[in-house]
Structure formats: structure tokens, C-alpha cells
Amino acid sequence: MGTTTPPRTLAEALRARGDESLAGLLRARPDLLSPVPNDITQLATRAGTRASVVRALEHLDRFALQTAEALAVAPDPAPYDTLLALLTGDGQDDGDGRGDADAAITAALPAALATLREQALVWGEDARLHLVRTARELLAPSPQHPSPTGLGPTVAEATAGMSPGRLQEILAAAGLSATHDPVSAVAALAGLFTDRSRMAELLDTAPVEALAVLDRLVWGPPYGEVTPNPAPPVQWLRDRGLLLPVSTRTVVLPREAALHLRAGRAHRVPEPVAPALVAVAERDPQAVDRAAASQGFMALSTVEELLKLWNDGGPAILRAGGLSVRELKRAAAALDASEPVAAFWIELAYAAGLLAPDGETDERYAPTPASDEWLDLPAQDRWTHLATAWLAATRTAGLIGGQDSKGRALSALGPDLDRSAAPEVRRRVLALFASLPPGTAPDPQTLLARLRWERPLRTSGLGGPAAPGDASDLRSRLALWTANEAELLGITGRGALSSQARALLDEGPDEAAARLAPLIPEPLDHVLLQADLTAVAPGPLERPLADMLSVLADIESKGGATVYRFTPGSVRRALDAGRAATDLHAFLATHSRTPVPQPLSYLIDDVARRHGHLRIGAASAYVRCDDEAVLNEILADKRSATLRLRRLAPTVLASQADPGSLLEGLREMGYAPAAESAEGDVLITRAGARRTPPRTPPTPVPEGPPVPDATLLAAAVRAVRAGDTAARAVHKDAPDTATAGSLPRTTPAETLATVQAAAMTGSAVWIGYVNADGAASQRVIAPVKVEGGFVTAYDHTADEVRTYPLHRITGVAELADEQTT
Predict the structure, then answer these.
(1) How many CB atoms are located within 10 Å of the residue 159 CB?
(2) What is the spatial distance between Cα 294 and Cα 181, in angstroms, rounded to a whole number?
(3) Please, are residues 656 and 613 in contact by the beta-carbon 8 Å criterion?
(4) Which terminus has fewer CB within 10 Å in the chain: N or C?
(5) What's the angle, vertex CA 655, arms to CA 649 and CA 661, rounded to 5?
(6) Residue 652: strand pairing partners
(7) Which strand ranges, in their side-by-side order, compose the sheet holding 615-617?
(8) Angle of helix 40-47 versus helix 50-58 axis, rounded to 10
(9) Beta carbons of 519 and 289 less than 8 angstroms apart
(10) How many CA atoms lie within 13 A of 332 on its CB side?
(11) Which residues, 6+ apart, have CB-to-CB distance to 59 below 8 Å?
(12) Rounded CA gap, 438 and 425, in Å?
């Protein structure tokens, strides 16, 4: 009663766990839930598959992975003390100042081992630790995939195909007694290499050059190439078994000899403790918040400018998808940013659902209807929308300009930019920022070192190719891009995490917006007009004012203050939008804190006087004007030859060009024509009329199965337990019952009698059942009612009441007495 039998398999070890422990396993390895295993045995089998084990190993921190690597080169099973010795060494080199390091390893090993146990990579008690077979195969050394520890095969493995005569020669050269039993010979040689005193005596007789060869192989890789006539030092090592042949030209340093040379350590530098983050600067937290808020406001302005740039239809989409290099350069020039930064803003607007393809035949990018809703939000809410979209996006702007796995260029808004690890890396980088005191900026190199410790880079020992387009340092590059993008977006300020970003990570967008709101300047309702046909906006402007001013004037410079310049073209743009000269004068007088300069009034009146004097319509196109002299002047101008004009009447010219081309051609000649409708009314062109149909933002590509919630985990554990109960049900022997492990077989009459008796007594029975799809299963049920060819019962396997057709039950057997009580 008081004793427990050690588990003999992984399935038994999992079966002995509590429900909370099983839920922890499924939470750490959610791929085991697709679909929910039928029982514990199937769960154990799935946990040992190659794909699942590789995924689990890649999510270990460095010390947990080093622990697994040490178990891979240890005997199976390995006692806890043996594992600890592989990580700390045999104590022969403690004089090198390793005492503190060994103490740290001793303190960290229980937690690392608990992690491996929780993820079902290690099972068994401390006296008999088993690394799951698949993990051992992945991490164990071989010529094709050297062990991450740099250790080679054991003496027994390396001499598996060696002739008995050669073994005797090695024993003789090493000073060992000859034996005719190959197994004893191998054991004697391995015993020599693991005996510290005898091994030291052997190495004392080695030539200096031979010791140099061992030094090159001891920390790996343990394989080396030799010539048919090796040098004397190499021959000395081969004669004594310190180098064993793998092929005719390859030799290997056996594991036992390497461990002796390493003082028993599996790793040169065990890393039981995560590297600490080092601060490069400590700044005033309030100054950090202000700097981040300022940069965040600039981010909003940049995205708004991008939407305006593509307001009436953006660039065309390449046949392969995405933007051309020319269009990216054009956008970068308009945003006054470098091409990589412009690509980031474009991808951010796309991820936030503000930009999308319009779906037309000549497909182009354009703002979405959601962009209008976004523009109407307060500035703090617009910022949280962008920041939240950035955190969740798997599209990675930093890859733009590089190449995919087939050598094709990666373009902005193009395919193959999704990296499923990006959201996790972003959040982890920001979490490390948040772990420092407010206002503290971390050193990027220590940040990268910490990330590499938490998730070591994929090694060749894990096998399996990397995902297309991925490089071994992708996480490091993602971390660096995260730091740069966070500064651009205002997540960080002056290299430190802002309080509004901390609130976004911990409490959500609403709290982040509340903290950001006081730091954003109030929009202004005025500008300062100057005599040089410019207007200065000393801060952010109210949206109606900013929208109107962007039509009436061109932005000349941006920064703390925005400078607008009035030109004939910009004034004509406002008139084309339906504004009259009196409207423009009233607008400037209302919103200027300085008197309207006379040159600006003259400019507006002069353009307005000529605006609409010419009328353009469809003939293909025509020009009409009440002043014949103006039409004569146009016909006489050589620049009008390309318009192919012909006089139809004293006041009408016809053209073979379309109305739009005719309109632009006359404007380039210095005239100010206006387009008119078929009824003769002036056409008003409204800016920002082009929108895509309603679009949803791109869906992030998840990294593996999603982490299940607590409700799903609890249900899955119950289902696995119930299925395990049914699979392991012990039934009473019956003449017609099939052998253990197969479905029970009884006649229909016996099936009916047995379930009726179970319903009367309230006992449980074991049945075999075939569903409508032909899938067979075995279940433990407690019949409640039997009538009409159906049995209604509580199904212990499904943990619910179900109804089964009697003709689909293959057979029934009573459970053993100990299971029915």
C-alpha cells in the first residue's frame, strides 16, 4: 500500500501524473491536442514523434537544452548524480575558479529537469532518468549530425564492426591484458578511458604532437581525416584506441576519452543562469514618456500623410504582388524617410487595415473605409490601434529588400513576408524592456544575449530544415528590428520603454490611451500667415483646418512647426474642389492669427479670375471660351500641337485628346481651364474620393497551434482520462470474449441480456462499438435504459450520457470486480 512502482514507460509516467500536471503538458506542447488523444498511451506516442519533440526542444532555454544534451550522451537510464557530474565535471579542475559556476549549476539543475519532465522529454525518478528516445536520437552524436556537446560515440559504438584481432592489438598497445572475448575487450578499453589515474599515466607517455591532436578534437567536432600513412603522433593515438576508425579516412575520439580530457564535463561553458541585462542609460521617466509621445504623434502624422498620398488611388500592384521599387522610392520621398522606414510605415498601415488592394481590374492600393473611421478617432486611440496591430502582425518589414529562399526579391506589401515568430519576439523584447526600472535603456548586445539564452538558435543536432526564408539568426534580427520599430512608433522613447507602452502590454489599449492623452498636444485652430506666401502651423492642427489647408497649400517642411506654401497650382486645386475666391479669403481671415498678406490675396484673386474662363468638355474633348482672342492665342501656341485642336466655332475648339489630357495640357501652358459637365456646369473634383471595398486586416500567421485556454485544457484532460479508463478496462473472462486489446465479441442476444442486466443493477460494462463511419472503439458505459433497439448509458469515455444502437455494438463484457466497486 505504501510503495509505488517506478514507471516503466513514458505512458505509465504520464498516467501517474495529476490532472494539473497533464494540463501543464498540453499547455506547453499544444500540438499534442490536435486532435485530442484517445488515451494516455496515444498521448505518450504523440509526445514522442519527431516533429513534436523538435518543436519542444526548440522552445527550451539554453540550460534546459544543455541538460537534455547531457542526458543524450549519458547512459540510459542515468542517475541524477551522473547527470550532475556531466554538467559540473568530476572536480579535477576546480582550481580554475569553477566553484561558483558549479554551485550555480547545482542550484539550477532541479528546475531545468522539472521543465524537461513537465514537457514529457524526460521521465522516471531521479535514480533512473530517461530521455525520450526521439530526443536522444536527435541529440546523440553521429557523423552526419554531430552532438551539440561535441562528443563522439562511445567505445562500444565506435568498435562495433572492429575485428577481434584489432581489438587485441589496441589492448596490448594500451598496456591492458589480452582477452579473447570482444565484449570484455571493449569493456576493458572503456574502463581504461574512464579510470582517471590509469588514463593520466597513458597520456604521460604520449608525444607532445599527439596531445596537440587531442586538444583539437576534445571539444568537437570529434571527427578527423587521416591519410593511409598517418603521421607518428596520429598513429600513436590510433594504436592505443584514443582515435578509432569510422571509415578508411575518418577517425573519431571516443566519448569516454573526451570526457576524461574535459574533466568529465559535457559542455565547455554550461549556462545555468540567464545573462543579465545591462543598462546603457538611465533617464528621467517623464522625459522618456514625453519623447515617446512626441514620436508617437509623428507616427500618426506619417501614416495620415501616407493615406493622403494614396487617397485618390495608390500605386499599381505588381503581377507577383506588392509594390515596385520605384513606387517605394516615390513613397519614401513623399514621406521624407528612407526606403526601409517608408516600407515599415506602409506595412504598418496595411497590418492595421488602413490600406488594401481595391480589387479592380487594374488593381491598386488605396485607403480602406476603416481608414476614415480611424482618422475620426482621438489621437491616443489612433496610436493604440497602430501599436496593437504592430504587436500582433507577423508580416516583417525588415525583410523587404532581401531575398526569399528562391533568390527572388522581397517587396513591400508582397508575399513571403510573414514570420510567425515575430509577435512572440516583439512581446518578449518589450517584456525585457519592462523588466528594467522606468527610464532605463538596455544595452542591445545584452538584450540579444538574453534572447539567445531563452531560446537558443536551432542547431544541426535537432535535424529538420529551417522554414523557407528563415536564417539561423532570425530571432536576433527580429529583436533588432523590434527595437528600431518601437522607437519609430513611440513604444519607446530615447531607448527606454514608455509608461503608456507598459500600460498597453499589461492593462490593454484603454489604459494606454488614458496615459498617452495628457502627453499629446491639443490641436490648434489657427496658423500664422506670412508675406512670402507661406503659412506656419506652430503645432498640430484641427482636422478640418488641416484638411482644407492641405488642399489650398503645399507642405514645404515638417517638424515641430509645419510650413505650408501657397502657389498658383495649390490655389487652383482649391478652386477645382468647389471653393470660391470669397470662401478662400474668409477661410484665411478666420484661421490666421496674423493679417492676410496682400500678395496672398492678389494670388487668390488672380487665379480665380482666370479659373473657369476656359471650359473643357467631351467631344472627344472641346474648349469653349467667350473670348475669341484667347482661343486664337491657344491655336497659335506651338505647345498646343500635341493636343490636335481644331476650331469648330469662333468660341469653340475641338480636340482628339480626352478631357483629362486636354485639361492638363492647357494647365501646363499656363491657362486655368475648368472641366464642365454635359449640361455645361463646372465639375467639382473632390479629393479623397477613392476607397477600397470593406477589407479586413491581414490575418497573422500563427507559430504552431494556439495555446489552449483553461476550459479546453480541463475538457481535454477529462477526455484523455476517460479514454484511458476505457482502453485499460479489465473485463471478466467469457468464452466468446476476444483477446485483450481487441474489441469484445458477443452474439446479439448475449449483448442485449448483458446490457439489460447492467441497467437493472446500475453497473458498468465494457463494449466494442463501430460508428457510422466504420471507426471502431472500445468504451466503458453504465447503461440506464434499453429499449427500441438502443441503449442509453453514461459513457465514461466521453464523460456524458449517450445513446448507442445495439446493432453497432460488437460485443460486451463485464468489468472486473475491482473496477465496478
Answers:
(1) 22
(2) 81
(3) no
(4) N
(5) 140
(6) 624, 649
(7) 645-649, 652-655, 621-624, 615-617, 674-675
(8) 70
(9) yes
(10) 16
(11) 28, 455
(12) 21
The SS3 assignment for 341 reads helix
According to DSSP H, which parts of 359-498 are helical? 369-375, 379-392, 422-434, 444-454, 474-489
Per-position DSSP letters for 204-250, written without gaps between them: HTS-HHHHHHHHHHTTS--EEE--SS--HHHHHHHHTTSSEESSSSE
Q: Which residue has the higher pLDDT, 726 or 388?
A: 388
Specify whether the CB–CB gap between 429 and 482 falls below 8 A. Answer: yes
Amino acid (one-letter) located at 573: R
What pLDDT digit, counting tens, does each position of 94-118 carry? 555 566 788 999 999 999 999 999 9
744's CB contacts (< 8 A; 6+ apart) are 731, 734, 737, 738, 766, 767, 768, 778, 810, 811, 812, 813
Kind and range of the H or E element at 536?
strand 534-537
Instruction: Please state, in angstroms and rounded to a whole number, the distance separating the CA atoms of residues 819 and 821.
Output: 6
Residue type (1 letter), 574:
A
CA separation for the pair 394, 426 (Å, rounded):
10
Phi and psi at residue 449, in whole multiples of 5°?
Answer: -60, -40
Dig out the grid coordinates for 381 from the structure: 486611440
Residue with cell 462499438: 769
First-residue to last-residue Cα distance in the chain:
18
Q: Is 253 exposed, middle or buried (0-12, 13-18, 19+ CB in 10 A)?
A: buried
CB 638, CB 579: distance < 8 Å = no
Lowest mean pLDDT across 378-392, 514-528, 623-637, 721-735: 721-735
* CA distances in angstroms from 542 to 503, 526, 707, listed in the order given: 27, 9, 44
The H-or-E segment that residue 529 falls in is: strand 528-530
User: Taking every pair of C-alpha atoms in the chain, what is the biggest distance, in angstroms?
Assistant: 125
- The owner of cell 446493432 is 807
Which residues, in sequence order, are bridge partners of residue 792? 785, 803
Mean pLDDT confidence for 132-154:
80
- State which H helix or E strand residue 105 sits in: helix 99-118
Q: Which of 171-185, 302-316, 664-678 has the lowest mean pLDDT?
A: 171-185
Look up residue 81 and give its DSSP letter.
H
pLDDT tens per residue, range 795-819: 776 667 888 999 899 888 876 554 4
Closest CA to 71 of 36, 13, 30, 117: 117
Tell how strand 244-245 and strand 250-252 pair up.
antiparallel
Rounded average pLDDT over 702-709: 78
Beta-strand relationship, 674-675 and 615-617: parallel
What angle (nearest 5°) sits at the alpha carbon of residue 549, between those of residues 544 and 552? 130
Mapping DSSP to helix (H, G, I), strand (E, B) and coil, where does residue 336 land?
A: coil
Counts for the chain of helices (H) and strands (E), in that order: 34, 25
Q: Is 762's pLDDT higher than 90?
A: no
Q: Which residues contact 93 (CB under 8 A, 6 or more apart)?
A: 263
The pTM for the full model equals 0.76
Residue 456 has pLDDT above 90, yes or no: no
Phi–psi pair at 391, nearest 5 degrees:
-65, -35
566 residue type, one letter:
F
Integer Cα distance of 224 and 249 in angstroms: 8
Cell, residue 525:
485652430
Q: What is the rounded average pLDDT for all residues in the chain? A: 85
Alpha helix (H) ranges present in 262-335?
285-309, 325-335
Closest CA relative to residue 85, chosen from 10, 194, 173? 194
CB 68 within 8 A of CB 122: yes
Which among 578, 548, 585 is positioned nearest to 682, based on CA atoms?
578
pLDDT tens track for 594-642: 999 999 999 999 988 888 777 776 677 888 888 888 888 988 888 888 8
Task: Give the whole-angstrom CA distance, residue 47 versus residue 35.
Answer: 13
Q: What per-residue confidence (pLDDT) applies to 288?
A: 95
Q: What is the pLDDT, as a whole number, of residue 169? A: 86
